[in-house]
Structures are given as C-alpha cells and as structure tokens.
Amino acid sequence: MSTAAWIVVAVIVVVVIVLVAAAIMTGRRRKVESRREEARDLRERADSQHATVQRREAEAAEADARARAAQAEADAKSAQAQQMQVDAQQRAEHARASRGELDDQLRQADDIDPDTPSDGSSQAPDDAALRGAHRSDDSADDELADRDAQERGADDELRHVDLTSTDQPRGVHYQDGPRGTPAT
After folding, report:
1. What pTM was computed for the model?
2. In this model, does residue 180 exceed pLDDT 80?
3. Residues 95, 169: contact at Cβ < 8 Å?
4. Is residue 184 a contact partner of residue 129, using CB atoms and an 8 Å limit?
5. For the purposes of burial, counting CB atoms within 10 Å of the CB of 145, is it exposed (0-12), middle (13-18) or buried (19 or more)?
6. Residue 170 in contact with residue 90, Cβ under 8 Å?
7. Distance CA 151, CA 137 (A)
8. Is residue 175 within a helix (H) or strand (E), and if so which, with residue range?
C-alpha cells in the first residue's frame, strides 16, 4: 500500500476513535444528567413528605409522653394500693388485739359476776353473741349480724364498714344511725 493509503487509513482510524470517544462522553453526560434529575425528584418528594414526617414524629412524641404519664400514674396507684394494704393489715392486727382485750375483759367480767355459771352452759344465746365468745371469724360475725337484722326486719339498714376510711375491724356491721351502734 502506498503512503497516501496509509494516511487515509490513519485519518479514518483517528476519526473513528474521536467519534467513539464523543459517543462515550455524551453517554456519560446523559447518564450523569439522568442521575441529577433522579436525585432532584427524590429531594422534591422528600421535601413534600417532610411535613408529614414531622407530624408523625410529634404524634409519636405525644404518645410516648402519654404512655410515660400513664405509667407514672399506675406506679403511684400501685404504691398507694400497697400502702393501703399495709394500713389494712395494721388495722386488722389492731382489731385482733382489741378483740383479744375485749374477750379478756368479758371473761374477767364472767369470772367476777356471781350470776354467770362457771361452766358457761346456761348462758343465753344473745349473751354469747354480744360477747363474741364463740364467733371470732368474719363470716360468723356477718352471719350473726344478718340473722339478727332479719329478725328485726331491718336487713336493708345494715352497711359494711370500709377499712380504708374507718378504724373498725373487718366484718363488723353497723346500723345506720347517729351513733353507729354495733348490730347484735
């Protein structure tokens, strides 16, 4: 081949290389521009959702605050319930001690009273109920009070004493009235 042919081939090769390089660069620019456009779209969508996300975060923080407040309230109520239980146990213990003292006083009165038989066999049932000698548990007190109330026709007038508000022993019933006398 002649020199002119080699020159023409070299020019064609250079032109092809330049065209290929231009095509690659154009493809890269388009790809970069496409990615820029995609990133811009993503940012616009994120900006449009920003307010929604902030609202959801505020709602979540509010729900968390409510949950913490409810937990604190539950803890306070639990502590109060424990204190009330301790108080009720102390009152029950005090009532047992008072019941023991009362029984001792009644036994002493029976020992001193010349009209009381020493074996206790001829006592009237009402005396035994008043003294509580054979009725020391709560269910027996309840049963006795209910039976007596029915005999008097005043079953609706009885009320139970709330241990959280009074110093009275559990299971003791009182008649409604100005002095709150124990039912017999």
Report:
1. 0.37
2. no
3. yes
4. yes
5. buried
6. no
7. 22
8. strand 173-175
